[in-house]
Request: fold
Amino acid sequence: MRVTVVGCGYLGAVHAAAMSHLGHDVLGIDTDTQRVAALAQGRVPFYEPGLPELLKAGVDAGRLRFTREPTAQEVAGADVHFIAVGTPQTSGSGEADLSQVRSALDMLVQHLDGRRRPLVVGKSTVPVGTAAGLADALAGRAHLVWNPEFLREGFAVHDTLHPDRIVYGLPDRPEQAQAAQSVLDEVYARILDEGAPRILTDYATAELVKTSANAFLAMKISFINAMASMCDATGGDVTVLARALGHDARIGARYLRAGVGFGGGCLPKDIRALGASASLLGVEPLAQLLAAVDTINRGQRDRVVRLAVECCGGSVEEAAVTVLGAAFKPDSDDLRDSPALEVADRLSQLGAAVTVHDPQAGEQVRRLHPGLAVAPDVWRALDGADLVVLGTEWRELTGLDPHRAARLVARPVIVDARNALDPTLWREAGWTYRGVGR
Ligand code: UGA
Reply:
């Protein structure tokens, strides 16, 4: 099928490459000149395992192209248009900024004459009610489906090609819904053949599935972080508690890692956008629940900063602090709302001389946070440190040899802000070890 993907950031670039992998002829459209130039040459402008190979294969096969400004013919000739633009948090409020979604739709509408009705497929995360408004704006020029995406950074290729479920939010009118469903079934034929569950529903439910999935994950993380505070207050160990809870299949073991809390471009802004929608719709208890999730999460960063200060005897002024990891999670170079980076910045503001090492995000940290020193490797980062903070649990960082590390630092004290190290091993190697709620 002929497909366009409007918006080639994280979601769109992965989606475009995945669609070409499924055999479709794909045109990626983005307003960012540099991003388009990189993608068109088969280069991924961010770190995502497996994506460079997929992108290059599509570009080399001639099935995957990128442009800043598509021609009218290119737009009008496509069978399916995916909208994959960003919906960041509006500054000064929790609401989602939908300006990119509106521009994407305007661009399409400009080129669609209504003679043949393609399918517009929304993948961006939007507040409930958005799709219904967009369907009106399309004014019969195209059918609209809301088809949220659930990919995780670091596993984006796998999650796109082997999703846990595919959700179609379909138009109300049965003949439109039928037409839209059969086109999307054709697009995803190979994924559906593999047995991915497909859920057919209305626009509102589809929009809510996406935001509530992220809200639920965020709630699990904040719940275990709140329990970590209970463990701190009582001498319990939250890692053992989480393991014991996780054996109950009704609870499940995942997203119960306590630590510095969640960050990134999705969970924090999505809980705020859902909270804003809930308030607007008068569903106050949900807004309050999500506000509590957010408060607990932000508190985790304060807590790690306090722990670091305490480990330096009440002040980090002039202390050499090494923060291992800067990305919001491992296997990603994404620094958006990264807890590790915020901790590094705040310790630096408190007067510490902070050195950061991250396996992939170092260059970005150097460019965007000139107040932080960036070490090219972990051993140089550790050299002479008064305190080490593990901020992101990259495998190469959690697998560090504590004996070798102890020989490099000035004082062997570590704050494990991800509860990712074995305290016994580190203590045996001479370290003072502090975790979160253990
Ligand atoms: C999240 C969702 O997991 C995806 O399903 C969703 O598609 C995506 O947002 C999105 O809306 O686009 P992602 O932002 O890539 O994906 O990150 P996660 O892997 O979910 O991790 C989020 C944060 O939670 C990270 O900072 C991570 O370190 C933290 N986390 C995760 C914990 O602190 N504890 C845990 O137990 C799990």
Observations:
- The chain is about 45% helix and 15% strand.
